[in-house]
Every structure is written in structure tokens, then in C-alpha cells.
Design goal:
Structural class: mainly alpha
Number of strands: 0
Protein name: RNA polymerase sigma-70 factor, ECF subfamily
Pfam families: Sigma70_r2 (PF04542), Sigma70_r4_2 (PF08281)
Number of helices: 8
Number of domains: 2
CATH architecture of the largest domain: Orthogonal Bundle
InterPro entries: RNA_pol_sigma-70-like, RNA_pol_sigma-70_dom, RNA_pol_sigma70_r2, RNA_pol_sigma70_r4_t2, RNA_pol_sigma_r2, RNA_pol_sigma_r3/r4-like, WH-like_DNA-bd_sf
Distance between the termini: 77 Å
GO molecular function: DNA binding; sigma factor activity
Family: Belongs to the sigma-70 factor family. ECF subfamily.
């Protein structure tokens, strides 16, 4: 029996490979579009491809968990794609943070200056980690990855005004927390 629009979900649940081929043919554009929209600021096509492959693997492995109608399948695969892409984005953002932490600052003149810089950076990261997940993601995207508020809003399904408000509130919270900590031990 050939796989078609009316039987592809049943065949997928029975782990028939032609059902996965049908899904890839039908939904590749959608999966690629959603993945690209979220991951394009990373400027790494390899990550987008890896994410797309991971989406289809997840669809295959979790097909028994899909319980909707054929019309709901598009929403289901879109949700899987969105969350996979956000996971990849967060993972790459963390790698960027680690790269920032490991970088060598040759412009420092003394060991004391380097120690002060490292402690200030640790304090800043600790403060950012006190923010809730969405605000922390916004801060990482805005200030570590240099992504514009409009793009952040699109990625997180928020309005630009909401992103800007969260940044403003987050800055006030960080400033207040920093003041409560007594500022930097080495602040002049």
C-alpha cells in the first residue's frame, strides 16, 4: 500500500519508512523555514541542517505520541521544530558564552587587572543567571549575541515592545541586585 495524505499517520505509527519519506517531502519546506527563522542569526547552515534532521528523527521516534487528526499534524511538527531550533540556539549561545569566558585579553597590563576583570565577569554572569528563563535568553541574545529587539521578538513570539520592556525591567533588576551586592569589590 502506498503512503498518501489519508494514511501517512497510521503508517508512520507502524514505523513504515515510506511514511517518513512522505512527511519529509510534504513538510521539509515548513521545517526548514521555521528552523531558518530561529537559527539564521547564528550564520551556520550546518546547525540548521542538523536541527532539521533532528526534527524528522524526533517525529519518527515519537510518532506514537501524536494523537490528533491529519490537520493537527502540521501544528505538531511545527511545534517540534520550534522547540528543537530554540534548543539548538540556546546550546550555541552557551558555547558563545564559554568562548567569551575562555578568550585571552592581551590588552590587560597587569595580573591584578585580569583578576578584577574575571571577578567582575563572574558577578555579571551570576546576576544574569538570576533572571527568569525568557529574560535571560533575551539578555544573552541582545547583549552577548548582538541580536536586534525585532529579531528577538520574532524568535520568542513576543512583541518588540514586550522585549524592550523586559530589557528595561531586567536592567533595573540587575542594577538593584548589583547595588545590594555592594557593587564590585574593586569598583573605583
Amino acid at each position: 500500500m502506498a503512503c498518501n495524505e489519508s494514511n501517512y499517520i497510521k503508517r508512520l505509527k507502524k514505523k513504515k519508512e515510506d511514511a517518513l519519506e512522505y512527511i519529509v517531502d510534504q513538510y521539509l519546506g515548513l521545517v526548514k523555514g521555521v528552523s531558518y527563522k530561529i537559527l539564521s542569526p547564528l550564520q551556520n547552515d550546518g546547525i540548521i541542517e542538523e536541527c532539521m534532521n533532528d526534527v524528522f528523527l524526533s517525529v519518527w521516534n515519537n510518532s506514537d505520541k501524536f494523537s490528533g487528526e491529519n490537520d493537527d499534524f502540521k501544528k505538531w511538527i511545527c511545534a517540534i521544530t520550534k522547540f528543537k531550533a530554540l534548543d539548538y540556539y540556546r546550546k550555541e549561545a552557551k558555547k558563545s558564552e564559554v568562548a567569551l569566558d575562555d578568550s585571552d585579553y592581551t590588552h590587560k597590563t597587569t595580573v591584578e587587572d585580569e583578576i578584577i576583570e574575571a571577578e567582575n565577569k563572574e558577578e555579571l554572569i551570576a546576576l544574569i543567571n538570576t533572571l527568569n528563563d525568557i529574560d535571560r535568553d533575551i539578555f544573552v541574545m541582545k547583549f552577548f549575541l548582538g541580536i536586534k529587539s525585532e529579531e528577538i521578538a520574532l524568535k520568542l513570539n513576543l512583541t518588540k515592545a514586550s522585549v524592550d520592556n523586559r530589557i528595561s525591567r531586567g536592567r533595573k533588576k540587575l542594577k538593584g541586585d548589583y547595588t545590594l551586592m555592594g557593587g564590585s569589590k574593586y569598583e573605583k
